[in-house]
Specification:
The chain is mainly α. Helix content is about 75%, strand content about 0%. The chain starts with a helix and ends with a helix. Belongs to the binding-protein-dependent transport system permease family.
Length: about 270
């Protein structure tokens, strides 16, 4: 089969994956360069244009102060995605470190870490995030840390399972027998061979983190108004559902589309790994 035919067959068989990738790429570009998508001011509104419906001038309509909703969604991508990335990094780094040490060292450390993981997994992630952000205080960074801590248990458990699988390998036993210190065995042999499934889990967690960050922002724990953030945009339109449905609908659809796209891409990566 010619090389020119392969991309065409891939596009035909997996159009959802292609669309998901394009959507995520557009959101990432919007996060770093929102001016490429809109020239409207997301903070200052025009009172004479308040509560206008979707049109060519305002693709997502305007809000109660005349601000362009599309501009606020685009500019809100940066803050929402930064919080999502930070949350996933916190969960990945902390959870992987705990699972790595617990699985490799075993004994009392393994027992203590796994009991902590059991407690974290016994509480729904969104409730644990809510409790943590209430203790930490308001702000996007605190929201990201709370979401990351609430999701680290899955990373710890998966990393521990992978470490238990890898540490019984012949190459690990050979490294130990040759006198390599345990830190060297851990860093050079165990971690690289156990990291693959955990990285896939990180991509899966992106969609969950977007949803949880938006939920906490919706409840008012995120950035202070009038800073645009996806969850806060959905919350801001609640009082205008009867007269200005677009204020809540379009930011909500944006969150849903990003979550679905992230899950679609993560499933594809998981399928390629397996």
């Amino acid at each position: 089969m010619s090389e020119a035919v392969l991309p065409q067959r891939f596009l035909i068989r997996r159009p959802g994956l292609i669309l998901s990738g394009l959507l995520l790429a557009a959101v990432l570009i919007a996060a770093f360069a929102p001016a490429l998508f809109t020239g409207q001011d997301p903070i200052t509104g025009v009172p004479s244009e308040r509560l206008q419906g979707p049109s060519l001038a305002h693709l997502f309509g305007t809000d109660e102060t005349g601000r362009d909703v599309f501009a606020r969604v685009v500019h809100g991508a940066g803050l929402s995605l930064r919080a999502t990335v930070l949350a996933v990094l916190v969960a990945f780094a902390a959870g992987s470190a705990l699972g790595l040490l617990a699985g490799f060292r075993g004994g009392w450390l393994d027992a203590v870490v796994m009991r902590i993981v059991d407690v974290l997994q016994a509480v729904p992630a969104i409730l644990l995030s809510l409790a943590l952000v209430t203790a930490l205080g308001f702000g996007t960074t605190n929201v990201a840390i709370a979401v990351g801590v609430a999701n680290l248990a899955a990373f710890a458990r998966l990393m521990r399972a992978e470490v238990l699988r890898v540490r019984s390998g012949v190459f690990v036993e050979a490294a130990r027998a040759s006198g390599v210190r345990w830190a060297g065995v851990l860093g050079r042999h165990v971690l690289p061979n156990a990291l693959g499934p955990v990285l896939v889990l990180a991509t899966v967690t992106v969609g969950t983190a977007v949803l949880e960050v938006s939920a906490l922002s919706f409840l008012g724990f995120g950035a202070s108004p009038p800073t645009p953030e996806w969850g806060a945009l959905v919350a801001g339109g609640r009082n205008f559902l009867a007269t200005a449905w677009w204020m809540t609908t379009f930011p909500g659809l944006t969150v849903a589309a990003v979550v679905l796209a992230a899950n679609r891409v993560s499933r594809a990566l998981d399928g390629e790994r397996s």
